[in-house]
Specification:
It contains 13 helices and six strands. By secondary structure, the protein is mainly alpha-helical.
């Protein structure tokens, strides 16, 4: 009898040891399994061994996916958000400068490429927020804006970027085609169109050196210098856009010309000269 009990106890102990060997907790697996070039992955009570290469492949795939999502965010609002208001926005049917649809003329596209090239201050083929800052600093460095105006100018530049292209990040940039698409969208959205280019008055005030409320041809040359253009182009452009030939531009005339450049596809408008010679590519 005693022998039978001893055998039964031994058998029970063996079974318990087998169960203990078969079932390992997450903590014990992590501590006990340490193989070279392997990695333990646990999900609940189930653990398995994954090679380091497989783990790296998964991490690379996840990182690439995150980059794609971040890239989408960095290129302005998502496509559906950029387009969703168009059907709800009223068209400026009373404006003869309105351009409808996405099939823009090559003339208009040349104008947009010209401005993209101007805003691309570091000339790397892309517009970044840093380019926006450099662009604004050129005008502020003239010293004609007071402290309040300079701050307002900086704030509007920042707001313009965030509304149009989203996050302020060194890796957030705008290609030529992206700029064309966004300018086209802006023209088809009444609310965006009204808010567009709010920084134009600050460009005027920055080059109005004598604070007369008007820009002379010499002050217009300062404007072109800040755009990275030469005085000869400035003199030619001023002679064309000064339609009443009074030798000066008022703030109202300046802003109207600056906006009309973006709004119209009419090649006869003098506003085509406002941002300098149009590029051919």
């Amino acid at each position: 009898m005693a022998l039978s009990l001893m055998r039964l106890g031994f058998r029970s102990a063996v079974m318990n040891l087998e169960r203990s060997a078969a079932v390992l907790s997450n903590a014990s697996v992590q501590k006990q399994i340490k193989l070279i070039h392997t990695k333990v992955i646990c999900n609940g009570n189930v653990c398995y061994i994954q090679t380091i290469q497989e783990s790296r492949d998964i991490e690379v795939a996840e990182y690439a996916g995150a980059l794609r999502r971040n890239y989408s965010k960095q290129h302005g609002r998502p496509e559906e958000n950029r387009r969703k208001k168009e059907s709800d926005s009223e068209s400026d049917s009373d404006s003869d400068t309105e351009c409808k649809g996405y099939d823009r003329s090559e003339f208009w596209r040349r104008k947009m490429r010209t401005v993209h090239n101007i805003l691309d201050v570091d000339k790397d083929g892309l517009i970044s927020f840093n380019d926006f800052l450099l662009f604004s600093e050129r005008f502020k460095s003239l010293g004609n804006l007071d402290e309040k105006q300079a701050k307002e100018f900086s704030d509007i530049i920042k707001l313009t970027w965030e509304e149009q292209w989203g996050v302020i990040d060194p890796y957030n940039y705008v290609t030529v085609e992206q700029y064309l698409e966004d300018m086209n969208h802006m023209l088809n959205d009444k609310n965006l169109k009204k808010r567009a280019h709010q920084w134009l008055p600050y460009l005027f005030k920055a080059v109005d050196k004598d604070k007369s409320g008007y820009i002379s041809v010499e002050e217009f040359k300062l404007f072109f210098q800040c755009l990275g253009l030469d005085n000869e182009h400035a003199a030619v452009a001023f002679a064309v856009i000064d339609t009443n030939m009074d030798g000066k531009l008022s703030l109202k005339e300046f802003v109207k010309l600056g906006k009309d450049f973006f709004f119209t596809e009419d090649e006869t408008r003098v506003s085509k000269m406002f941002w300098g010679p149009l590029i051919n590519v």
